[in-house]
Amino acid sequence: MVNALSSNLLARGFLALVLLYLYAPIMVIVLFSFTTSPRLSMPIEGLTLAWYKNAFANPLITKALTNSLILAAIAAIGAGLMGAAFAFGVMKLAQPRLRQALLAASLLPAVVPLLVIGISLAVLFHGLGLPQGLRNTAIGHVLVSLPFVVLTMNARLETFDFTTLEAARDLGASSFQTFRDITFPQIRPSIVGAALLAAALSLDEFVVTWFNIGNEQSVPVLVWGLMRRGVDPSINALASMLLFLLVCLVIGSNFIGRRNT
Amino acid sequence: MTATTGTARRWGEAGVVARPLLPASLFYVVFFAVPMLALFVLSFWRANGFVLIPDLTFDNYEKIATSSLYRVLIIRTITVGFITAAIVVPLAFAVSYVMRFVFETRGQVILQLILLSLFSGYLVRIYAWRTILGKQGLLNSTLQWLGLIDRPLEFLIYSNFAIVITLTGLLLPLAVLPIYSAMSNISRDYLEAARDLGAPAHTLIRTILVPMALPGLRTAFAFAFLLAAGDFVTPTLVGGTQSLLIGNVIADQFRGIGSNWPLGAALAFVTIAIVLALYFLVMRLIRWVTTW
Amino acid sequence: MKEFLRHILESKLNEDVSRRCFIQGAAGLATLTVLGAPAVAEEKKLGGPLNFLGWDGEHGGNVAKEFLAKNNIQMQASFQSAADEALTRFNTGGRGSMDILTPNKDFQRAILESKTELFQPLDMARIPSAQGLFPAFKDAPWLTRDGKTYGIPMIWGDEPCVYNPAKWDAMPEKYTDFADPKYKGELVLLDDPFGNIWLFAKSLGMKEPNRLTAAELEQVVEAMLTVKPNVVTIGASHGDMADVMVRGDASLGIGGWAYQTLIAKDKGVKLVVGSPAKDGTFFWSDAYALAVDAPNADNAYAFIDFITQPESNAALAKELGSGCTVEKAFDLIDASVRDIYPYDNVRQPGGGILGTQIVVPPQNPEGDIVGSAAWVEAWQKYKVA
Lengths: 261, 292, 385
Known about the structure:
The complex is a heterotrimer. By secondary structure, chain A is mainly α. Chain A has eleven helices and no strands. Chain C is an alpha/beta fold. Chain C has 14 helices and 13 strands. Chain C has a six-stranded mixed β-sheet with strand order 2-1-3-12-6-13. The interface between A and B is large, with 93 and 90 residues.
């Protein structure tokens, strides 16, 4: 009993350490978005909201923030839906060889250097006569996040118990009904997770973005461009706002999800 | 029932099965396969200054095969990918295990907490790591204040150590997601039954947990390996002077003065082929080890 | 909904502008052939978007704020992270949506010499302020081809060493001296193949540091490698280099920018500039240029003319800690920023040292002399080693 308790404590301590590691840079970002020290290093002299005021006063920053959120939403929904459907379709294929081949093919965009994807997409859009901008960038984001959604969903579905579906079908449920009532509730957390993943990849993507966004801005493209003159804590304010918005979004979706069930 | 209607029905069923595959497949063909094919053709062209000349030459591939620069870079890139994956995957496995079997239902909340750490902007987070790991950074000044060291540790930043720390922070959440997803079907009773029968922990892990979470582990490996091998921003910003990876060199071939698009395309395809071959080799190896 | 309407209205207005532009162009051509002299540009109605791709700060975000607002011009700025990214974007679908670019002198020279399509010749009648440029910047060889002008310089300067005076009293005589172990863990470089190789070629006493044979290039890389053990990291940009020094992770930047001292000052760190006495350093200048097929040429001309006025030019030079390009702006700048740069060079025609000194190698090999691809590869080899 004592043994179980101590190993339990050990496990919790381990998880706390991992979370500390993941959140250490984030704490630094949020902390320095509120301090007067422009160097992003210790010691902290005073607190201020000036960086947030700066960020809001800079039209480029607000524009970049809006665009990034739009792109992340499109990537999450587009890649989330298409990728989940694809992973589901692949699982239902009878021939294992075909299954493997399709999965491998869906992985390819993750292997190709982003720069190559960015340039080749830009050339394609140019050929199609589609001017650069958010639309082209959104397509790029969906493309680069699709493999990760497919892989995540595949990992979930490979351990999914498909016999329950057959049982439901035998009891006369239509395939839509079985999907809605049995499959979807079970894989919902994974779909949400995969969509979040797509959003996260989209928010950080800047190589494909750079070549396709034309005269628009996104957060990483702006940050990379501002680096020539050195970043100041307004960037931390920007990152903190982004994080805050997404935390709200996730909490909100949890709340709605709980009410529905 | 006649043969024709039977065939028709089978085709109809195939259509139903294929339907979910359609949107993504179409998307891949139009926005990925077509441009890649064009780029593949380009890799056999020549460049003269800023002008591209259509050709069918293997010069670009020959240059890559004979240059020690590219060989060194590809090996280094793959090493970074493997080392990162070797750290990230076991760590993510342990984290997922704790989430699934210690925290049980609250594991979902922790998963979201872990995934949320991704949403702070990677470039900004890299800068934050500079604040933590720098010569006068938080870690060094804390250690000095505690009297544990008297001179700042210099290997913390602009080093391979910094690359691994930063990349692991990025990739751990991505690796936890599939492993945790795969573990969510392993029942706790199953583990407890085995434990009651006297199976030691490592046997449990080897015979039950790993095989059952295998699809998730494979995916996590793919995430960590592919993303670490493809990233060139992290090495540029925290990696010090020996941090050039193949991605940087491919980028150079597509940018401005001194660029060579055909060579860049060829370099990209060689890298893709090697990375894919290694990936499948590892997958084969894993399957072989686990079925054995 | 309002946004949408405005968008429609704006695109209508643009359509109008481009049509008017065409008619005027045709009319101008007609007068030209009849009178043999260019027609004086009329007052244009401005407004609508203006696309900028160039360095952060050179879009005049602060300097031109009022001008843009007054004329109802919406500046859409995007920033590059390497000098030559404009060409890549132009060739991958950016053509027709790019207006103002900010090439540096050696990139512009390479583009003009190789007859690569990117910049269009400027109608100088529409930039009357350009009359006020220092003599060097009016007819400089890197800005002109076949008697046409392709760029209006807005700032200039050199790439000195930037260092922390708390650690170093002075710079050594030569760049090769940085191999001294006392610099261990103190140096930061800029990720720029041409600048670095050029400086070390100069340090090794090569006559034309931008025209090297394969053997000379190898010799340069070897010399650079003796310095490498002392290098902490290679900054992705000048701002990144400054960040490394401000944090105290390195104390001496090679191939820096005087502006870095301003970044550091803002953050409470003192940095100063100084170059190795014997080797010196090279000079650069950035210019405004107009992309081929620029959709908002009217706005672009008005912007360039505004920012070339003495007050704007002085403000920009001050903000970026660089040299001004307009003669009358000189008197408007603080001595502290002004005295960093040898203005004698730009008071004479031809560009002085800026005109004769070429930092980039030839685009293609010329006999024994290697081309730019070899330099890029040499720099990659240096970084891998």
